[in-house]
């Protein structure tokens, strides 16, 4: 089931950061990825179950050494 997800991301400071995170999430199958580097948040649509999504995000952000995510929230 598709869900809209919001996460907080620390370490972003420019449009390059935004683009890198956007591409990384899209490469993993996330849809409608929107990253706001000023607010430190990203929203996207995922069809993964929560445990699988957290595992995927853990892997993605372990590869993006300068960034960390937290506060995963299901919006709808």
Tell me, briefly, the overall form: globular
What fraction strand? 35-45%
How many helical stretches? 2
Rounded radius of gyration (Å): 11 Å
Q: Helices and strands: which structural class?
A: alpha+beta
| Number of separate strands | 4
Q: Spans with pLDDT under 50 lasting ≥5 residues?
A: none
Overall average residue pLDDT: 94
The oligomeric state of the chains shown is single chain
The top-level CATH class is Alpha Beta
The neighbouring-strand order within the major sheet is 2-3-1-4
Model description:
The protein is an alpha+beta fold and 76 residues long. The protein has one domain: Alpha-Beta Plaits. The protein has helices at residues 15-27, 50-63; strands at residues 3-10, 31-36, 41-46, 68-74. Strands 2-3-1-4 form a four-stranded antiparallel beta sheet, covered by helices on one side. The protein is globular and about 35 Å long.
Summarize this structure as a short list of keywords or feature phrases:
2 helices, alpha+beta, globular, 36% helix, single chain, Alpha-Beta Plaits
How would you sum up this structure in a few lines?
By secondary structure, the chain is of the alpha+beta class. It has 2 helices and 4 strands.
What's the arrangement of secondary structure elements?
Elements: E1 3-10, H1 15-27, E2 31-36, E3 41-46, H2 50-63, E4 68-74
């Amino acid at each position: 089931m598709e869900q809209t997800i919001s996460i907080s991301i620390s370490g972003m400071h420019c449009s390059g950061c935004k683009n890198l995170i956007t591409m990384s999430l899209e490469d993993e199958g996330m849809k409608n990825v929107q990253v706001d580097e000023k607010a430190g948040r990203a929203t996207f649509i995922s069809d993964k179950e929560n445990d699988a999504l957290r595992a995927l995000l853990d892997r993605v952000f372990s590869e993006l050494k300068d960034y960390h995510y937290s506060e995963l929230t299901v919006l709808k």
